[in-house]
Predict the structure.
Amino acid sequence: MLLVINKTWMGKALQAVSQNKDAAAIVGINSLRMNTLAFGLGVVLLIVYILFILFIVEENTDKSWVSETVVPFLLYSL
């Protein structure tokens, strides 16, 4: 993920919008599209994390409390 943010045009545009929305708009970056993209990436990472908790952590341990407490909290925080 770090390589995508630091090396691609999309990642540099995300950084530019996060630092100064007006200056990014001046150079032609659509701030609404970048905000939508950042939100979408956050949701995808949250889903991957939840699936990791549900299938990897709980399969290897006897901690069913993880899915009963952590996962609803993460979903509620959206």
